[in-house]
Amino acid sequence: MNFVQKVLEHLKGGDEAKVNRFFKRVIKYLDDQVEIRKREIEDINDKFIDIRDRENDAIYNLDVEELKSVDTTKEYIKKYVDNIVEIKREITEEKEEIKIKEQEIVYFSELKAKLVEDNKEK
Questions:
Q1: CA distances from 60 to 40, 64, 107, 108 (A)
Q2: Residue 107: which residues within 8 A CB-CB, separation 6 or more?
Q3: What are the respective helix, strand and coil percentages of the chain, to the nearest 5?
Q4: Which residue has the higher pLDDT, 17 or 91?
């Protein structure tokens, strides 16, 4: 029994044309969602370039004016490290976002594969 037949069985005599149309729309929706996630991952990867540049600037672009005295140096050290840590957090968050989107692609693909397989004539 294929997907449409299984749904119709649950509906006990529902409209086959509507179920077929629904099936096609679900497959298109899943395909669209996979493409959207892929584009979002590309966008995040592009952001990594900017983040890495900011990280390098934060690490190597010291404000020597802040190093004139012991007190200003102590304050600057905190600001310097906090800034780098914040950038590292941002990198971690972006990596996590990529993992989530990659997992969603897997979910969408698995669901599509199941639906297509279930809809084959048996």
A1: 30, 11, 42, 43
A2: none
A3: 90, 0, 10
A4: 91
pTM value?
A: 0.76
Structural domain boundaries enclosing 99: 3-119
The number of folded domains in the chain is: 1
CA atoms within 13 A of residue 16's CA, in its CB half-sphere: 5
What region, left, alpha or beta, does residue 12 occupy, with left being phi > 0 and alpha being psi -120 to 50 degrees? left
Largest CA distance in the chain: 84
Indicate the average pLDDT of the chain: 91
Closest CA to 83 of 61, 67, 50, 64: 61
